[in-house]
Amino acid sequence: MKRLDNIPTHLSRTFTGTYRLTGRVAKFDNAKTPFLKLRLSDCIGDQIAMLNLNKTTVPERIGHLDFVTASGVKCLSDQFVLDEFRKATREEINSLDTLQSLPRVYCPVPEVFDQLVTIVQSLESAHLRAFLTRVLERKDRLEAFLNAPASVTYHHAYPGGLLEHSLDVANNAVTMLRLNESALPRLMQEACFVAGLLHDIGKTYTYDSKGKPNTAWKLCSHDAFTLEACAYGLAHLDKHAPDLAIMLRHVWTCASPGARYGQKAAITLARYIRDADGQSAMANNQQRAFRRPTSKGFGRLGQNLFWQPQLAHSVTP
User: Fold this and answer.
1) How far apart are CA 238 and CA 233, in angstroms?
2) DSSP one-letter code for 58
3) How far is CA 1 from CA 29, 50, 197, in A?
4) 46-52 and 79-87 as β-strands: parallel, antiparallel, unpaired?
5) CA–CA dist 39, 43 (Å, integer)
6) What's the whole-model pTM score?
7) DSSP H helical segments within 137-203, as ranges?
8) Tens of pLDDT, residues 92-122
9) If you ran DSSP here, which 8-state letter would residue 264 be given?
10) If DSSP codes are grouped into helix, strand and coil, which group holds residue 78?
């Protein structure tokens, strides 16, 4: 590792920002100067930064995924040499855009991740954006949401599958709402998107940060964790938009196929999300069942049998 304590001004530019701390390892340069090599992450990507331990004291109690503010210079190697590294203030954290702090590096399906961030940041409702911040940007939930599969053996059963399935359901539910009830206000469309996006958020309690099933997966239904996962966000909506809060609770708990509790659906959003959930799961299952061509048009995934008609690629009238 080359010396990093004397960078010519014309080869560097200033840098400052607030990120999540996602990596830290001790290094020495050629002059035996001790450095910390830091990975600073957000929804755009990673910054690799070097902190000279002879010049800068590392603040205590900065841990994995904590918010940090760093400043320094960027050299030609695309690394930053820091002159400041500290815990971010509450004001700096609050100034970040919605989902800006989610580490893109943790998502196995980056194109889906980028779509999520783009849509969420386009929401007009400040209350729904604040709600999603309180639910998805929690240290103890975000890694599971980005890494977990949607199921262990069936639909979207791969790392990042939960995020992909959740976004499918949210987008498809909004499409159905717009087709059937185009006069509904934008706020209802945004609420439909949020409800669909978080319909399986309880699964973040049943997988660990690496997307592996945990004890809760064996002992509890993920449905039972939905309101718990959203409690902090719902408390915000209770104060600022109480009808949104109760609507989301109803959509996630009303009776649907397989539900163990709930009142009958009293709003069409609940049906759109139920149907979008089933269609996303079946479409992915069918794709997996036909990964290999079959001669008779049948494919099987577990106990489920699928049929694919043998149709000509083009039809001449």
Assistant:
1) 9
2) P
3) 5, 11, 45
4) parallel
5) 13
6) 0.89
7) 139-147, 161-180, 186-197
8) 999 999 999 999 999 999 999 999 999 999 9
9) P
10) coil
